[in-house]
Amino acid sequence: MQMQQFLQEGKCDEARPLVNAIASQNWIPLIQGILRYGWMLTDQNPYPLITSKAHQASGATFAAAILPMIHQCGPRAAKLIHENMKIRNTDKDVDFKAVQDALEGCYEHLGVTCEDVGGLVDEVSDDVVVKYFEPTQPCDRIMSTTVNGNKNTPSKKSASGPSVFGYIIILLLIGGLCYLPQKASGKEKSK
């Protein structure tokens, strides 16, 4: 809302610092996708799923989109995620905990938090998450709050975030609303 207000008022200098904060939120759905498909493709998953190359391809795609940023954080973390999430001949050999730890180790670098990412939900009651799949709880089970008077119940978090294209749209808006009016006013002065 603050970015929108700054852009509508033409306060481009005030809007620019918000770009990084907004852009960092674009990593959340990618991280969630890696965790989701990593969990589906691990032997730790208690629910028998029919896994396929499509699940591997989805996991590999999410990983490929964020691996350059993970590599900036730590090349070993990027290699671990790549090795676990790449397409291979077997369906279930992802070391979920290693992938989760590698991602969590880079959250600060990416500008996201454990609470932003959340975990994989196992049970929901009255639109409130009451249980995560045990190994998939966010950041070693540090999310515990009081919901409906029950202590140690994780809070409900959204499973989606802005798309990567959101960042591009923000940059185009800043360019369109800040750069073009300055250029137009420059042309008027030269006439």
Structure write-up:
It is a single chain. The protein is mainly alpha-helical and 191 residues long. The chain has two domains: 1-26 and 162-191, no CATH class; 27-161, no CATH class. 58% of the residues lie in helices and 9% in strands. The protein has nine helices and four strands; from the N terminus they run H-H-H-H-H-H-H-H-E-E-E-E-H. The protein has helices spanning 2-8, 12-24, 27-40, 53-73, 75-85, 96-104, 107-110, 114-117, 164-190, and strands spanning 121-125, 128-132, 145-147, 150-153. A two-stranded antiparallel ribbon has the order 1-2. Strands 3-4 form a two-stranded antiparallel ribbon. Helix 4 (53-73) packs antiparallel against helix 5 (75-85). The longest helix is centred in the C-terminal third of the chain and has 27 residues, at 164-190. Mean pLDDT is 75; it is low at 141-165.
Question: Which descriptors would you attach to this protein?
Answer:
globular, 191 residues, single chain, 2 domains, mainly alpha, 9 helices, two-stranded antiparallel sheet
